[in-house]
Task: inverse folding
């Protein structure tokens, strides 16, 4: 195992203006999972002088994933930490636009305004691979030891240590388990099995070349006017937005699996590659022309994903006091809130702050603080994601008409979380490093939930 050297004064390497000089000896953290949450946790801990090893089962890191969003509540943390997104290809979001599925009529616009002024950070639409590349480069720049092709098969929680498939073990003071929705470690934290639950929905994730849309007068506004467009219809909705400055249009078709007749996902299979878009084209044949065109532009070789949900994870801190869950391992979120990566970023920030000044003797208390601070907020957003699943997929009728009317109102009856200004302030104005003092935190508990 490679353990990075810490400078003699205990500070982190140069290039970051927020590093601290710990008054206690640094810890050695072993992070399982080099996804967005794992890398952000590693970066945050390294800023404070801790030694960090990251283990990931992937043989290499490359062009993986599709579009995602970086809202102000995570952007402000990235900016403060010196994670420079200046030269990363990106699109600034106008806001969220909701449309009827059959004629494209705008149900409601929910503009972001000027999020830098209102919430302290930009709202970006990016390609996940580009974002991951920036984080990976920052982690390595800071001296994080990122190891690929290192599959973790088990744990020694008392050591603590990660047990690898090749028979070796990586020991540290703290294990940060960020191994995703299918986490192998979660059962040990809860004391019982807590498998992901199939929601009954599947998603098709597609990247369409922007030039194919710009050449079509009916489609070009979807690129040139960068809204997150959401078409809501019976048992399905479609979300689209441009990334990489309009080079690519990211489309997600979310559908009740029972309404699809293409290749089925096997039991416990999370994704597969679809080679023929005929079924997708047929499924959306009665939707408005732009959605039909998007379905036709999917081509071949796009991904079909099973959407999972999870019951409340009660314990993010392991009983040993030497391990924590982070990101999707503790609070996997349905994509309807577009907050999964942002919540992982907030996790990393709170974990970092909780561990400042911690020693092996006080580690158990520190990670319980992390759990106490993060759990209520992440769990509230999980619940809202479940509600949005039902709200997006209503059939035409009285409930749908009531939903559409409520979407245009700035009050608590709006079914879209950020459609209510007070809730939007709680979501986007939050500062995970201030623990309750950020803009929007003075709203009452009912409004938040």
Result:
């Amino acid at each position: 195992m490679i353990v990075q050297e810490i400078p003699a004064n205990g500070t982190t390497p140069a290039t970051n203006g927020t590093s601290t000089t710990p008054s206690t000896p640094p810890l050695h953290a072993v992070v399982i999972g080099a996804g967005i949450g794992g890398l952000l946790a590693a970066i945050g801990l390294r800023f404070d002088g801790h030694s960090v090893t990251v283990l990931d089962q992937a043989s290499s890191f490359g062009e993986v994933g599709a579009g995602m969003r970086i809202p102000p509540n995570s952007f402000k943390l990235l900016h403060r930490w010196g994670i420079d997104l200046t030269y990363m290809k990106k699109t600034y979001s106008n806001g969220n636009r909701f449309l009827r599925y059959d004629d494209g009529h705008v149900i409601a616009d929910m503009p972001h305004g000027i999020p830098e002024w209102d919430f302290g950070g930009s709202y970006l639409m990016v390609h996940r691979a580009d974002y991951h590349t920036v984080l990976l480069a920052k982690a390595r720049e800071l001296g994080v030891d990122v190891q690929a092709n290192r599959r973790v098969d088990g744990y020694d929680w008392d050591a603590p240590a990660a047990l690898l498939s090749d028979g070796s073990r990586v020991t540290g003071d703290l294990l940060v388990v960020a191994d995703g929705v299918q986490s192998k470690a979660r059962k040990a934290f809860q004391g019982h099995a807590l498998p992901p639950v199939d929601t009954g929905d599947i998603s098709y994730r597609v990247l369409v070349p922007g030039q194919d849309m710009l050449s079509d007068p009916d489609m070009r506004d979807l690129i040139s006017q960068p809204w997150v467009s959401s078409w809501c219809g019976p048992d399905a909705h479609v979300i689209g937005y441009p990334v990489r400055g309009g080079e690519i249009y990211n489309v997600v078709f979310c559908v009740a699996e029972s309404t699809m007749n293409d290749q089925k996902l096997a039991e416990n299979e999370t994704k597969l590659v679809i080679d023929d878009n005929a079924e997708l084209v047929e499924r959306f044949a009665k939707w408005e022309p732009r959605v039909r065109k998007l379905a036709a532009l999917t081509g071949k070789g796009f991904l079909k994903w099973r959407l999972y949900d999870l019951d409340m994870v009660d314990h993010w801190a392991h009983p040993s006091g030497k391990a924590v869950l982070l990101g999707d391992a503790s609070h996997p979120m349905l994509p309807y809130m577009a907050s999964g990566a942002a919540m992982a970023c907030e996790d990393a920030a709170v974990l970092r702050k909780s561990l400042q000044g911690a020693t092996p003797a006080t580690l158990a208390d520190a990670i319980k603080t992390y759990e106490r601070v993060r759990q209520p907020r992440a769990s509230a957003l999980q619940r809202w994601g479940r509600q949005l699943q039902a709200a997006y997929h209503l059939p035409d009728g009285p409930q749908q008409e009531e939903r559409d009317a409520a979407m245009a109102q700035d009050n608590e009856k709006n079914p879209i979380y950020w459609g209510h200004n007070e809730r939007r302030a709680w979501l986007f104005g939050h500062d995970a490093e201030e623990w309750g003092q950020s803009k929007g935190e003075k709203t009452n508990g009912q409004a938040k939930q």
Notes: The mean pLDDT is 89. The two ends are 44 Å apart (CA to CA). The first helix runs from residue 36 to 47. The domain at 1-62+125-196+313-389+408-449 is CATH 3.50.50.60 (FAD/NAD(P)-binding domain).
